Amino acid sequence: MSARTWKNLLADQMPEGWAHEIDQFEAQMELKKLGKLEDKIFAETRLRRGAYGQRYDNGQRHDGVDTRQLAFPGDHTKGPETVWDAPGMHRIKIPYGGMSNEQMNVLADLADDYSDGILHITTRQDIQLHFVHIEDTPDLMRRLAAVGITTREACGNSVRNITGCPLAGVCRDEAFDISPYAKALMHFFLGHPDVQDFGRKFKPAFSGCAQHACGLTNMHDLGLIAKIKDVDGKPTRGFAMYIGGGLGAVPHEAKLLFDFVTEEELLPVSQCVARVYTRLGEKRNRNRARIKFLVAKLGIDEYRRLVEEERKVVPHDDRWTAYLKELPHYEDSPLKDAVQLSAGAKPDGFEDWVRTNVYKQRQSGYVVVTINLPLGDATSDQFRKLADVAAEYVGDSVRTTVEQNLVLRWVSEADLPSLYLRLKDIHLATPGAGTIVDITACPGTDTCKLGIAASRGVAGELRSHLTAKRDTLPDSVKGLKIKASGCFNSCGQHHLSDLGFYGNSRKVGNYAVPHFQVVLGGQWEENGGAYGMMMGAVPSKRIPELVDSLTDTFVQQREGDESFRQWIARLGKKEVRELLKPFMTVPSYGEDPSFYTDWGDAREFTLGDMGVGECAGEVVSMFSMEISKAESEAFDAQVAFDDEDYAGADALAYKGMVLAAQALVRTQFWDISNDADQIVDEFRKRFFDTELFYDRYAKGKFAQYLFDRHERDDVEVERDTARSTIEETNLFIEATHACEARLTASTAEVLK
To answer: Which helix (H) or strand (E) holds 98?
Structure first.
């Protein structure tokens, strides 16, 4: 069916404004094809409609499908020249994760018609389709709009999907149901003129309570936690408002902006937060453009003052309170009456599934069932059949989760056995939801252009490995969280897990070897209450045995009810590093070539064509010795941080950055002195100005970490400052490794 036919067929079913926006996007596509629209303008346009480019040269997906065949039915040897030459990824916003049966069926149809038949659930409750051709996107958008779903501002420098606790309304510990408030803020911000000129993206999240992790407000640009407060003798609904959280390359914990914002003030105060960010946020340097950097620069007290001043002058908007009239009519009700689960024989595997995948609602006789999706994926057939199951048991009470799963809410307890069998028939009754086998992973090298190592590959391997021994694992291990990202950007939320991993690489001889940086001791509870710290890089192929060793040692050394995070803190960085050391070595290529491939990809590992340059081959081993000094300083900085010596930690981390720069400079200029000014100057001239330090995606931003810290000498060092410097140092060192590897590979190619 042509796009024009869909346009005519669905004309009366789409919201008028949404239909017009899709028409505009289609017109911009035509202008781009005619060469009448600049690339950078169209890039931002399509991103704001949810259309991303994606990786095409990654070989095989984790399930063995040849992704190059999906992307290029003909010649697999060349890359795309324009966005029209290869399919990409399309992100679909699912506010607070809520979907109806009709929407699920349409999503399944779109996966079949335009994608590869796979629906991927993200860590922000979106749904992504991969291998979608740009020509199909207006068609796709219209079919979504007809059932109340938009892709507008799913990507780009805009307000992204508003996430919310999937248990909202049924949670036993919540203050109240945040769902209608999340919906109101989503519609208020969508296309709002005050949120169109951000320097970077802006991610809001709602949580019904402070103690659990369902909303992860601590890692968001705008975090809202439901509260009820006595005001003038009346219980009043409102929210604790946090701003400036974020993971990414350098994680920041959100700061409390206001202890209590009433429901009447929720929208206007959120608008004022955005207006201050729009006005004062960084625009030129994207690496410092998130609101977390503005909050760190101004301080939370000054940001609060600016928001309060903005609130006095922001023009009145009737929508601020119009949604409150709808709150009494908001209803999330059961499809069936509550009936207790009867005694008697149950299907095989039922009890195991109930233990991990079923949560008792606060409403007696009802439960929430979690559909545990490996790697967040479901086939279109599964999605369609699940919509049928939901229609029979719970109606439209289906939501996605931040752990890449689905939940069915308002399940009558008596229906659990039959529901289990129905789910089992479509291979969606896997137990272990919320346990160590329920591993979160970003797309990594499967489809992401930024992916360095196969996060989905290692997650899939760990899932299989741990599932095989799940019945023998102690409860203290079963409850641990594992999360993996393909690069430092933390799309897999590795900072918030007990055991986190993000992809990087190391050079061994003339070969690049896939590694994962190990991040330990993050806190999932309390809305992502604390972030783990980097402990060292381990070869990808050794991650499963490292996980076994760490969990076994934890069980042996655990004191009382000590958590994994508390155990890591008690041991300290030096002792934890000793636990990692046996797994950090790489056998030679001749001894074991498997170390030189990544999980799910039989090809020899490579970072790809990410730069050009040259350096002397004989100094590679010297670089390895020199860079180890930088890594030692960075590690000592983490130890000092643990000892609450924040000024010392900052100074050690800075020294590590300077030593890493010196190591790289010495590949060209051995007689460089130990003077920091000269090192930074030579690094800038030889590697930054020449763009040798650039890769295709970071584009030199890690060098800016060195320059910024080198110029800073009069700032009082606090905890957050020291932590940021440590994170930036580790990223700078990783970038130095990658630069040296690219230059060595380029030299080797020239010498062939």
So the answer is: strand 98-99
CB 526 within 8 A of CB 211: yes
pLDDT, tens digit (0-9, with 9 covering 90-100), for 552-604: 999 999 999 999 999 999 999 899 999 999 999 999 999 999 999 999 887 88
Give the domain ranges of the chain: 3-145, 173-326, 360-425, 607-752
Q: Are 494 and 459 in contact (CB under 8 A)?
A: no
For 113-120, which contacts have Cβ atoms below 8 Å and span 24 or more sequence positions? Answer: 114/90, 114/139, 114/140, 115/90, 116/65, 116/70, 117/379, 117/380, 117/381, 118/377, 118/378, 118/379, 118/380, 119/377, 119/378, 119/379, 119/380, 119/383, 120/375, 120/376, 120/377, 120/443
Tokens of 50: 């949810």
Buried-exposed string 695-719: b where 16+ CB fall within 10 A, e elsewhere:
beebebbbbbbbeebbeeeeeebee
Please give the CATH architecture assigned to the domain spanning 173-326.
2-Layer Sandwich (3.30)
3-state secondary structure of 256: strand
CB neighbours of 661 closer than 8 A, spacing ≥ 6?
679, 680, 683, 706, 732, 736
User: Tokens standing for 237?
Assistant: 């609904």
CB atoms < 10 A from the CB of 354, how many? 17
**Cα angle for residues 694, 696, 701 (degrees, 5° grid):** 45
> Regarding the domain delimited by 607-752, which CATH topology (the fold level of the hierarchy) does it fall under?
Four Helix Bundle (Hemerythrin (Met), subunit A) (1.20.120)
Half-sphere exposure of 478 (CA within 13 A, CB side): 14
What is the radius of gyration, based on Cα positions, of the chain? 26
Query: Which tokens is 435 given?
Result: 């346990």
Give pLDDT, residue 24. 87
Q: Which one is predicted more confidently, 186 or 78?
A: 186
Locate all alpha helices (DSSP H) within 358-483, ordered by sequence. 380-393, 416-425, 455-467, 475-478
Other C-beta atoms closer than 10 Å to the C-beta of 352 total 13
Label residue 146 by pLDDT band (50, 70, 90). very high
CB 128 within 8 A of CB 51: no
* Token pair listed for 613: 């340059």
Does the pLDDT of residue 632 top 90, yes or no? no
Cα maximum dimension of the chain: 82
Residue with tokens 């990786």: 55
> In 497-590, where does DSSP find H-type helix?
525-528, 543-557, 564-580
By three-state DSSP, how is residue 43 classified? helix
Residue 602 confidence (pLDDT): 79
Residue 389 corresponds to which tokens in the numbers above?
Answer: 């199951």
State how far the alpha carbon of 735 is from the alpha carbons of 452, 664, 681, 699, 723, in Å.
12, 11, 18, 11, 18
CA distance 653 to 726: 5
- What residues pair up with 483 in beta bridges, in sequence order? 440, 500
Q: Are strands 51-52 and 406-412 parallel, antiparallel or unpaired?
A: unpaired
Q: What is the mean pLDDT of residues 72-101?
A: 72
DSSP conformation class of 136: G
d(CA 169, CA 175): 9
Q: Regarding the domain with residue range 360-425, which homologous superfamily does it belong to in the CATH classification? A: Sulfite Reductase Hemoprotein;Domain 2 (3.90.480.10)
